[in-house]
C-alpha cells in the first residue's frame, strides 16, 4: 500500500524505534518506495544511517544488566539485552579472526560470539553450554560486521534453549541452537 | 586373566606403542594389576610416564603434513595426523581460557581445538565447516590438559564428516560431529 509522505515518515520513525537495525533496503521494501526515498526521508527526519545507529546503541553499557558473566567476557560488542528473552551483539571481523590463506573468518570466532551471547542472555549467576547444533550458512570475510541475535526459546527447570542467528547485511551467516545449563530455575 | 610378568611386560610394550596416550590407571585395569605394578614395569622397561610420552610426540613438527591450513592456525598442539583419517592435539587450559568467576574453560576454546583439528585432518587445500553438532559432557577446569582425537567417519564428494572426542584424564569432556566442506573430492 502506498502512503503519503507524512504517513510514511511517521511510520518510518516508529519502525526504526522498534528495530534500530533495520536496513534502508528493508525499509524501502516495507513501504514500497525506492531506497533513495528512504534516504531522503531519513535526512529530512535527521535519522542517522544504520551504521551510526548501531554505533550509538553500542555506546550504552550493559555491565549491570548481564548476570551470568562480566561484560568484557562477551565476545563482540553487546548492543541490547533483555534477560531470559533476547540479546544482540556486533562483531567486526578483523585480520586476527580469519584464515591467512583466504581471509575467511574462522568458525570458532563466529561460534564464540554466538555462544557468549547465549550465556549472557541467561538471567542466572551460572550458565554453561551443554549442547549446540550449529550451521555456518555462508562464509564471512575480513572487514564484515556480524550482527548476532539471541532469542530464548524455552526455559525448563535448569535447561534453557537459546537460538542465535548471526547475519551480515541482513544475510544469515550462522545459525545455532544452544542448550544451556543454569544453576537456578527461574520463578514461574 | 592374570599373566606372568614377562608376558605382561611384553604386552605392555605393545599396548603403549599402539596407544601412547594410555594412562597407567587404564593399563592397570587392562592387565588386572595395581597401578604401582605398572609403574614398576615401566621403570624396568624404561618406558617414560604418560606426560613425557606426550611431550616426546609433541616435539614432532607436522608443518609438512597438514594441507588445509598452516600448522600455527591449529588451536592446541598437534601430536599426530594421518590425513583424511585421524588427528590428535593437546590443549592446556590456562587462565586466559576460563571464566573468571568459576575457572571453568569457556566453550569456544574447546570448540576451537576440536574444529581446527577437524579442518587440519582434511587432505585438501580448502576445508570449511558447514555444520556441527556438539556436546559439552563435563566442565574442564584451569590447569587441565585436553586431548582431542579427530576421526574421519565418511567422505562423500565435497563433504567430509569428522568426529572429534576430547578428553581429560581419559574422561570425555567434549564430543562433536563436524560436517566439513572441501574443494576437491579425493580420488577413490
UniProtKB/TrEMBL annotation, chains A, B:
UniProtKB keywords: DNA-binding, Fatty acid biosynthesis, Fatty acid metabolism, Lipid biosynthesis, Lipid metabolism, Repressor, Transcription, Transcription regulation
Domain Thioesterase: 116-164
Molecular-function GO terms, alphabetical: DNA binding; DNA-binding transcription factor activity
Coiled coil (residue ranges): none
Keyword Cell wall biogenesis/degradation on entry: no
Ranges of residues in domain HTH deoR-type: 8-46
Gene3D superfamilies: Hotdog Thioesterase (3.10.129.10), Winged helix-like DNA-binding domain superfamily/Winged helix DNA-binding domain (1.10.10.10)
CDD domains associated with the record: hot_dog
Pfam families to which the protein is assigned, alphabetical: 4HBT, HTH_DeoR
Record flagged with keyword Nucleus: no
Domain of life, per lineage: Bacteria
One GO BP: fatty acid biosynthetic process
Protein's job: Transcriptional factor involved in regulation of membrane lipid biosynthesis by repressing genes involved in fatty acid and phospholipid metabolism.
Family note: Belongs to the FapR family.
Protein name: Transcription factor FapR
